[in-house]
Design goal:
By secondary structure, this protein is an alpha/beta fold. The chain folds into two domains: 142 residues, Aspartate Aminotransferase, domain 1, CATH 3.90.1150; 240 residues, Aspartate Aminotransferase, domain 2. The strands form two sheets. The protein has an eight-stranded mixed β-sheet, with helices on both faces. The protein has a five-stranded mixed β-sheet with strand order 1-12-13-11-10. A hairpin with a 2-residue loop joins β4 and β5. α1 packs across α9. The N terminus is likely disordered.
Length: 410
């Protein structure tokens, strides 16, 4: 009998591209993953950080931890915020969580009541919309343009809802390098938004996970900073700047809010958010490895963005428009009338290119948003894949436009 006969055989390593077969042929080019580039994951350094965490503080790392999170990692994050943004916060303002998604879910659980309205951008991150839909709230949209959330539209929405007696729990917003549009909320709009929210008593949930992936210029001050730390719950994550599989993020808020989250027993956070992972990440950061790693990511993703924009400029027919993000992972493309993204997807899939249609990033499908939009992530695919994918998409769009033109002439 073989020595390993009684050992369960593990399945082959997970391939993140396997899932594309459900939406397209094997080997398809998937413009669907807003994931970090696997080739940039600092595997060897994480191995070294894991060994350091186990050898120096193994008994603590493998035990339950404080609900607010591992202290040395909190202190590192406090220092990082001050170095990067000139913003001073204390331990009372911050806690660890199992990724930004858990932070959003917690905000919905603690700060909404059944029947409340939660406001979201149009478009907004589709997984965040799904998280919010797990709660008994009604989602209402506020449009964005090239400068981010339209604050005047938000004011009108708040007034209309107030007149019919609806309670607005909070606004969920991704102000920096937004997912899916790649747009950054302009500095003056940030100030206007914070002022409006304070006047209306509207809580802001600020998803700021892309802030570090900045290719040019300076990121405007966070909503949390502009609000003086009041009335804003700010979410951060190591998923985009270190490794998504760590499932570790953080919440920054007023001390009363942090304490309320601690006291309520954040679901899945009993004994602290991923204490072992927190020790590993702390060791990684204490070695001074995070800052140069982020710099490497920024340089790499800037090149990827430039390659995607160049391919779009080279291949796309007249009438197609797209955003030019100054950071993050995404370009938002708009098709000319009367083309619709779902129709383009059907043909593109047959030709081996898949993408996420824009309608899936809108909370209110009845309003028809996103029909002519598609999201193109540039973080995960190679430059060659993006070039080939854009070429195919352009050919499909050009053929669709030719058909429409023929129908019009007939």
């Amino acid at each position: 009998m073989p020595d390993n006969a009684s050992v369960p055989q593990l399945s082959p390593p997970f391939d993140p591209l396997e899932g594309v077969q459900a939406g397209g042929p094997a080997g398809a080019i998937p413009f669907v993953y807003g994931h970090p580039d696997p080739d940039l994951l600092p595997v060897e350094k994480i191995i070294a950080a894991t060994e350091r965490a186990l050898r120096t503080r193994g008994r603590l790392a493998l035990q339950y931890g404080p609900e607010q999170g591992y202290g040395p990692l909190l202190d590192y994050l406090i220092g990082k915020v001050e170095r990067d943004e000139g913003l001073r916060i204390a331990r009372a303002n911050i806690m660890l969580c199992a990724g930004a998604a858990q932070g959003l879910d917690t905000a919905a659980r603690l700060f909404t009541r059944p029947g409340d309205v939660v406001l979201v951008e149009a478009p907004s991150y589709h997984e965040a919309i799904a998280t919010l839909r797990d709660h008994p709230v009604e989602l209402r949209q506020v449009p964005i343009d090239g400068q981010g959330l339209v604050v005047e539209a938000l004011a009108k929405r708040l007034e209309a809802l107030s007149l019919i007696g609806r309670r607005m729990a909070f606004l969920y917003i991704i102000p920096t390098f937004q997912n899916p549009a790649g747009i950054t909320l302009a500095a003056e709009r940030r100030e206007a938004l914070v002022e409006l929210a304070a006047e209306r008593g509207l809580l802001l949930v600020e998803d700021d996970v892309y802030r570090d992936i900045c290719f040019e210029g300076r990121v405007p001050p966070s909503l949390f900073e502009l609000a003086g730390g009041r009335g804003v719950i700010r979410l951060g994550s190591f998923s985009k700047i270190l490794a998504a599989g760590l499932r570790l993020g953080w919440i920054v808020a007023e001390p009363e809010v942090i304490q309320r989250i601690v006291n309520c027993g954040l679901k899945g956070n009993e004994g602290g958010a991923n204490p072992f992972v927190a020790h590993v990440v702390a060791a990684f950061c204490q070695e001074g490895w995070l800052e140069p790693h982020i710099a490497r990511l920024v340089a790499h993703y800037r090149t990827r963005r430039d390659a995607l924009l160049a391919a779009l400029g080279r291949e796309m027919p007249d009438g197609v428009r797209w955003t030019r993000p100054s950071g993050g992972f995404f370009v938002w493309l708009t098709l000319p009338e009367p083309l619709e993204a779902e129709a383009v997807l059907a043909v593109a899939t047959e030709r081996g290119v898949i993408f996420t249609p824009g309608a899936r990033f809108f909370a209110q499908a009845s309003e028809g948003g996103g029909r002519r939009n598609l999201r193109l992530p540039f973080s995960f695919l190679s430059e060659a894949q993006m070039a080939e994918g854009v070429r195919t998409l352009a050919e499909v769009i050009r053929a669709k436009l030719k058909i429409q033109s023929s129908k019009f002439k007939a």
